[in-house]
């Protein structure tokens, strides 16, 4: 049985970890103000029938073009950061571990044409049209690394929560592969579901799902709540100038703030799209559930995810550190 705190209890320091040698930054310890919604007679509290509206809104934001000097540029993710670490402005070599579709690797290769970018993953799902300075490799980052020592300016991970059985070992390998002055940056979400105002009930399906997901992952020696420890592990491996930032990601569009509402819309769509895939294997293999039991349970989980009366969120950590020069 997991000894982790209940999933509806926020971490003790929501803005990051304070350690002797690292700086902890991020959003202030504040409670996001919830938007006022009309009470309606619906199981989904106003979102179920509006999913197509949300999807259309998100799609329109992709075509919200930016115009500059008479030229049109894409508006997708405008203002977002590809990385937080203050890397060399002319990096020579970058590694994206767990590249997935390769979207981040493509963007970083375009941003830094001076760099040779490598994107690795277990599955060859990446597209064939890539910048000339980007290559994809099928590789298991948990196996021994064959990269040349002291060779990378930046090693990057994003959304690999639960992917590693031994995060400290991965961080140690990254330390060896990074050149002096190079950076490791990990952007990882914590699966624990939090709420600051008591609207996430302890007996809700969403809380139960979060708890069972942790327990199922732990039976395989994996943690889905390791993100808060990344900065400490970086320091243990020898990284300096370690910074740990933490951001609240609302689970749907419940916040009043327009930017956080948009973040919540994206988070909800991602959550709903990936819920079945994320749950089915772990619950059937580790917990002994049948597929029918999983599907029946997820009906209630989806209802909680879409309920704007539930002011829940995940903590998203951005930890980065530098190898001493």
Automatic annotation (TrEMBL):
Residues 1-25 are annotated as: Disordered. One of its GO terms (biological process) is methylation. Residues 15-25 have a biased composition (Polar residues). Coiled coil: none annotated. The keyword Transferase applies. GO terms for molecular function: methyltransferase activity. It comes from the Eukaryota. Residues 1-10 have a biased composition (Pro residues). Keywords: Methyltransferase, Transferase. InterPro entries: SAM-dependent_MTases_sf (IPR029063). CDD domains: AdoMet_MTases (cd02440). Gene3D superfamilies: Vaccinia Virus protein VP39. This is S-adenosyl-L-methionine-dependent methyltransferase. The lineage of its organism: Eukaryota, Fungi, Dikarya, Ascomycota, Pezizomycotina.
